[in-house]
Every structure is written in structure tokens, then in C-alpha cells.
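Subgroup meeting minutes
Present: P.N., E.W., G.H.
Scribe: E.W.

1. P.N. recapped why we're keeping a running log of single-chain structure predictions: easier to compare across weeks, and new members can see raw inputs and outputs side by side.
2. G.H. added today's entry (104 aa).
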Amino acid sequence: MGCGEGLILAEGGVIWCADLLCPRPSAAAEILADAGTGHLVVLGEDTLTIRHPLCERLDDALVTCLLHGYLADGGWRPEAAGRFHVTGEPPALTWTAPGEDPGT
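Output recorded in log:
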């Protein structure tokens, strides 16, 4: 959100933007709270959207992520459209619907 210099460490260790014009002062804290290491994949009838985990921003892992290419090229995916948490590396992927136990 461009906070940069406006970020402060508030009481309780919460990162907050102190800039009075900031549209979402809690954005940095919200982003950092997402500690997931898997992908969120949304499949539509003819669409594919992937939200990559934040850890893929380190060491250019986002640029080398194989998931989008694998799915776009026809790699295995569930038959039904929906939202899924996806872990693993292609082709060994685990697909779990949000709220579902990944061990089942």
C-alpha cells in the first residue's frame, strides 16, 4: 500500500501504518499473518487463478514456481470447479478444499 515510512511497531508487537491517509493501516499485519506455505487455487469452468504463498517471494521462488504452467498445460486437477489449497510440487500435488482435513 506504499506505507514504507509510515509503518510502526505498535503496542503488542502489531505492525501498523501511522500515516493518517493510509486506506488500510492494518495491511502489513494482515499480510504477515498469512503464514501458509501452500497455494490457493480457484478453478472456474474455463479459468484458473493462483494465489502464491508469501514464502515464494524469497529467492525468486515465485518466478520459478511450476504450478501455473503445470495446470495451464493440462496437468491433473479436480473435475469440479472451486477453491482449493494445493501443496506439493507437480505432479505430486495434494488438493484440499478449504475447511477440509488434508489428512483425509
